């Protein structure tokens, strides 16, 4: 059975040196007339316990490192005291290069490397419809088609949609423009988020002609209601209609965009005119555990092909694409961020080169 930890190179060096010294003592004892076994036994006894010797050597090694570090620190302080202008130039040059590099890498880490701020964010995908015969076809999805996808698929935990609009809120002293998101059923389940205060929409509120309800953002709650914990149950007048507040979303939920103030439920499949031609939803979904994006796309493509045969006029030419939400979110910034990181890395390299040139010129001058 292999050991869980390997010896460090330093320990291997100590073992090698100990074997060398014991072998030398053994050779000296053999030369003095002892038998081989007795000579080795005497050498080991004379040398002492191996672990004790190694620990003593480690202590000496540690002290040497500390002494070296202290000597370097003293030399650096003396250099700073004797050449303050030169030292300030070196420090500022390094600070510029390292600071710019750190700032850009922090942005890359937050935007490109870390997952989206939602539970199991790798399961979130964006679903769009396309018409290959019409390059100007909008990718929004009809509510009834969304419900067909959600009902017939086998690879998603849920599919949901939303769209946003600006409305007037008039319960205050003056009317105020706010951004409202109309969301279809399963919206908060797909995103894996729950209100920090109050509750989500009830099934009755998500039905046609059901009671009105609104969820508000943490930002709007603090600005409009001064973070009043008794806000649940109060009313907002949106475009002349009253909507009771049922909950407050947590500050981390900044979706569909950072300017969204309110969320209201829209009944499943509700539409106007020809239902399959009214496309207005942006559709997102949450994959089942272990399901890949390619498998989900194949599943929805099969479903859409069935719908195309059932509704040839509205669905016959449509195709479906499924893409990881993380990729669609950062697609426009990935290349520019890496180019910026390469630029600041080059800046750091130039800064280090300038410092080396300064040190070399100073050394030549002193020589």
Please characterize this protein's 3D structure.
The protein has 367 residues and is an alpha+beta fold. Helices cover 50% and strands 17% of the residues. The protein has eleven helices and ten strands. It has helices at residues 9-31, 36-47, 50-82, 84-113, 143-152, 187-191, 218-225, 293-310, 312-315, 325-330, 334-366, and strands at residues 124-130, 156-169, 176-183, 197-198, 214-216, 235-238, 241-248, 262-265, 282-287, 319-324. Strands 1, 2, 3, 4, 5, 6, 7, 8, 9 and 10 form a ten-stranded mixed beta sheet that branches.
* Tertiary shape: elongated
For the biggest sheet, the summary is: 10 strands, mixed
Taking pLDDT < 50 over at least 5 consecutive residues as the criterion, the unreliable ranges are: 1-7
Helix-and-strand structural type: alpha+beta
Order of helices and strands: HHHHEHEEHEEHEEEEHHEHH
Average pLDDT for all residues: 84
Notable features of this structure?
ten-stranded mixed β-sheet; elongated; alpha+beta; 367 residues; 3 domains
